[in-house]
């Protein structure tokens, strides 16, 4: 179940919408009238050099930030209240923080002050009451984390628009102006039963979009990956997970990409009735979205029947041509990216924790796993064929972690707090109370600061050094 929540070339009517400015459905506006951003005595000064352009910082989904030590942080600012709930991880580009809301708005905030630089509303979001199930309310708009291409000065965001259609928008990073937009629902898809929670991925000159289902597993839906050229031209290509029904790709971290440009996605439970159909699997796709390989646990049928999604976390690409995967069952799998192994073909499997959701973080020889009963650090063996527990934090519901400034950062999703853990032993170094947070909230980092999404604001915590 989604806890939120065929490779073909398909010419579509979207070509009529390519390379056009918005007309009535989207608009770039000055900042909305709102209270000033809350600040503390700590000033981040002029924050520049942000380079967090995709979910967890890079397309492998490593979650590792480059930059100075930030072990001693204090709250620097909280943005004004934005116009909807925030499920996306913030991006940091230059001197701006980019975020998106369920009201189908994209915002640029000043990274030094939190003030709104620009806001672009992309259209009218879907009223959640019109959907057959789900738990994002009262509207469903932009749920997935956008992706940026600083070299082109563009931000890509995928919006769910009333009465029920997903569209991809390319916006100018400097102004929020819409450069082009086009529909991205593959032929045969019912947009009202599909949810776009997974982060967008930019690779191979394309933007990749992964779909799952709504919380409640209602109606007819499938795991799906679609892609369009980064300049908006040409056909939509897509891959549908060949399940009888379900098998959504819904983890917030989105598709991960290796050095060759291949994509890795993980699926949730399907309604297979004991016949393997690629539910609860890790699937490797070519840049053109042809299926190349797959992995499924030996107990895939049990996972299917029990709604114990392997795909509650997205894959992460590790050093040495390895993939790590974990899901609701809390069993971690180390896979060979060159030969995923099919059913039961993992290099190593081990119970890690009580259950995991969202996305992991990874360095050369460590993996940091968010669990419902704390955060766990795993050490990868020198030969790359196994892993072992290194430490386990105190018990809390850990959101997807990142590594920044020598500290492991995560959000306590139950208590609503930013938590910093010592990377050597998991001891708690920082706990900063937040406002209410959304499911699977994850911070980002740039230039000695952390940017943390709360339900309708972004808060910056910056080094006191």
Task: List the defining traits of the structure above.
465 residues, mainly beta, Methanol Dehydrogenase, Chain A, 6-stranded antiparallel sheet, 1 helix
Could you give a short description of this structure?
By secondary structure, the protein is mainly beta. The protein is 2% helix and 39% strand. It has a single domain (8-33, 46-463), classed as 8 Propeller (Methanol Dehydrogenase, Chain A), CATH 2.140.10.10.
What report would you give on this structure?
By secondary structure, the chain is mainly beta. It has one domain (8-33, 46-463): Methanol Dehydrogenase, Chain A (8 Propeller). The protein has one helix and 40 strands. The strands form nine sheets. Strands 1, 16, 17, 18, 19 and 20 form a six-stranded antiparallel sheet that branches. A six-stranded antiparallel sheet has the order 2-9-8-7-6-4, with no helix packed on it. Strands 3-5-40-39-38 form a five-stranded antiparallel sheet, with no helix packed on it. A hairpin with a 5-residue loop joins β36 (417-422) and β37. It starts with 7 loop residues before the first strand and ends with a strand. Residues 3-21 have low confidence and may be disordered.
């Amino acid at each position: 179940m989604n806890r939120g929540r065929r490779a073909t070339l398909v010419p579509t009517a979207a070509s009529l919408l390519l390379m056009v400015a918005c007309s009535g459905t989207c608009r770039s506006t000055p900042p909305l009238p709102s209270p000033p951003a809350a600040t503390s005595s700590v000033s981040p000064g002029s924050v520049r050099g942000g380079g967090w352009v995709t979910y967890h910082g890079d397309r492998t989904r490593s979650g590792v930030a480059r930059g100075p030590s930030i072990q001693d942080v204090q709250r620097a600012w909280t943005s004004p209240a934005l116009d909807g709930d925030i499920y996306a991880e913030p991006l940091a580009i230059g001197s701006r923080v980019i975020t998106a809301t369920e009201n189908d708005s994209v915002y640029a905030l000043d990274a030094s002050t939190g003030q709104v630089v620009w806001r672009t509303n992309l259209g009218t979001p879907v009223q959640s009451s019109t959907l057959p199930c789900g738990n994002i309310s009262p509207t469903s708009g932009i749920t997935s984390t956008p992706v940026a291409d600083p070299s082109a000065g563009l931000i890509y965001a995928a919006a769910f628009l009333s009465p029920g259609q997903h569209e991809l928008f390319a916006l100018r990073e400097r102004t929020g102006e819409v450069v082009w937009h086009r529909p991205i629902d593959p032929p045969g898809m019912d947009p009202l039963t599909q949810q776009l929670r997974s982060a967008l991925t930019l690779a191979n000159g394309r933007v990749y979009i992964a779909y799952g289902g709504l919380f409640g597993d209602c109606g007819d839906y499938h795991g799906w990956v679609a892609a369009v050229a980064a300049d908006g031209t040409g056909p939509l290509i897509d891959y549908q997970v060949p399940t009888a029904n379900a098998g959504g790709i819904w983890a917030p971290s989105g598709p991960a990409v290796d050095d060759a440009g291949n994509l890795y996605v993980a699926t949730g439970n399907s309604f297979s009735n004991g016949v393997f159909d690629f539910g609860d699997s890790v699937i490797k796709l070519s840049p053109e979205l042809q299926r190349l390989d797959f992995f499924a646990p030996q107990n895939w049928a049990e996972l299917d029947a029990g709604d114990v999604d392997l795909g509650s976390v997205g894959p992460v690409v590790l050093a040495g041509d390895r993939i790590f995967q974990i899901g609701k069952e809390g069993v971690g799998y180390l896979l060979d990216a060159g030969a995923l192994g099919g059913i039961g073909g993992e290099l190593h499997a081990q119970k890690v924790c009580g259950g995991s959701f969202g996305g992991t973080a990874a360095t050369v020889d460590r993996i940091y796993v968010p669990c419902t009963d704390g955060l766990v650090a795993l050490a990868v063996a020198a030969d790359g064929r196994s892993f072992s527990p290194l430490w386990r934090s105190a018990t809390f519901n850990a959101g997807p972690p990142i590594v920044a400034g020598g500290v492991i950062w995560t959000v306590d999703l139950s208590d609503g707090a930013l938590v910093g853990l010592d990377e050597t032993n998991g001891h708690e170094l920082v706990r900063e109370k937040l406002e209410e947070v959304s499911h699977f909230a994850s911070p980002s980092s740039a230039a000695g600061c952390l940017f943390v999404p709360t339900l309708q604001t972004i808060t910056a915590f910056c080094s006191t050094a």
